[in-house]
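FW: tagging you since you asked about this chain on Friday. Here's the raw sequence from the shared folder, copied in full. Didn't touch anything.
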Amino acid sequence: MFVSKYFNQSEFMELNLILKKNDKPSLSQASASSTLLRHIAIACAFAIGLATSQLSYAITDPVSPPAGEKFSYAWLKGYARALSEKAYISHKGELPKSIKGMSWDDYQQLQFKKDKALWRNDDSEFRAELFHLGLYFDTPVHISELKDGKTTPIEYSSKMFDYGKTGIDGKTLPEDLGYAGFRMQFHTDWKRDVIAFLGASYFRAVGKEMQYGLSARGLAVDTAMPRPEEFPMFTHFWLEQPKPGSDITTVYALLDSESVTGAYRFDIQPGDRLKVKVDAALYPRKAIERLGIAPLTSMYMIGENDKRTDWDWRPEIHDSDGLSVHMGNGEWIWRPLTNPRNLRFNAYADNNPQGFGLMQRDRKFDHYQDDGVFYDRRPSLWIEPEGNWGKGSVQLVEIPTLDETFDNIVAFWNPDKPVKPGEELLYSYKMYWGGVPPVEPERAKVVDTFTGIGGVIGQHRQYYSKRFVIDFAGGSLPMLADDAQVKPVITTSAGKVEITSARPQHAIDGYRAMFDVVPPDNSTDPINLRVYLEAGGQPLTETWIYQWTPPPQNERDLHNP
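HL: got it, structure written out here
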């Protein structure tokens, strides 16, 4: 079951104007094109806040346990709960002019000195480096080191940074300027990051490919509503010193916003798939209409199934190509992403989901031909809930984009239970970053989705229809007998389905489903499609779901000779 909303153009334009003013660049030093400016179109209220003196900048006080009390996650939860009972105070401030008006290239020159890295001189498998404030990153965060329950604030010092050729004199910056975030490296490669936290509650990580791609957030509040989205922020971090030889490091974070506070614990374990175990305790200040748990942010511009922006020389441009959901009842669904004409919202109802994520299944270089940012290496991100998450829905937001530097995809879990002030919400889950998720369907999965004009080749088309082609591979498909009676099971919410078939696709040791959809006359309402293959009444594949919006009547070209 799912519900959808298709925003009209005026609603989208209002949202888009807000977003473009608050673009957020990404961390891309791990890619071959380290100067690529990655804006996050659904991010961030980085608007300028209260003005401050050039002699004093930090407007967020440090946080630590009372004297004689050790830091613990239980203490942090108690602090977050108490904070939720107080009025929200903005953490934003006015950057000094020398670092506020810089370009992205200049900002990248503000490099943390390697010899100042946290734990560099310890017997540690990890090192941590800090991000300088500047450009869009105008909100200071407090960062402390945690060892044996004792916290030590990492005070800002311009001596920790190399300012390159920017012309900035670090000595002129406020002594309490603070930091924008941090990143970590692992002993297998000290030059490249494995994870980074920068901006609002955003963070991203890499698997063995060492390639940044999509992002995650600590929390989403009122995403894709007919009003500006709220972006909670991690205001304080505590980086726990890893035990000698350990491949796990722990980060604690305090989250704050107008609507909610939160205490977070991240246990980070690099590997072929980097794993992050997340514990989150949330304390609403007020009712929240749409709460997003484990939110993911990605980009989809051009793909096999959607070439609305087809003027680029590259055949595909995307960080992720589909939403995968392992439903509570065991069903696997695959929803190819699209770049719609208008903002699109879908909710896929479930009870206690087993997992969901934004995937980059297509990992063939020749499908992208991009030797600068390497979309074929972008990680997938799988969320594995722990405990019973109850009833709710996996929600997907797709925002139109004409530019690959704008992230336009969001996915998250939204609980059915209303969020009320004064309560405690506890969520735990594992995150897996890498090329291949830790679990996949036992049945055949979707490997390709193609779309085009319908009809019969060589025959004059009398009416408009859309062709859908879905390739399935894996599972039991390679073992089917030549005379197996495989058929597609197709359902549609509107229109008429015709010219259906399912036949072996030997190039992938799988099967290809093909069908046309004839849309209703004069309707541009979205049509929801659902397809899987079966034989003898038994399903052979995961379920492919799709939302197609027919073009206006005057754009339904039959392409007849």
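FW: Residues 394 and 413 are 5 Å apart (CA to CA).
HL: agreed, and The longest helix spans residues 9-21.
FW: great, closing this out.
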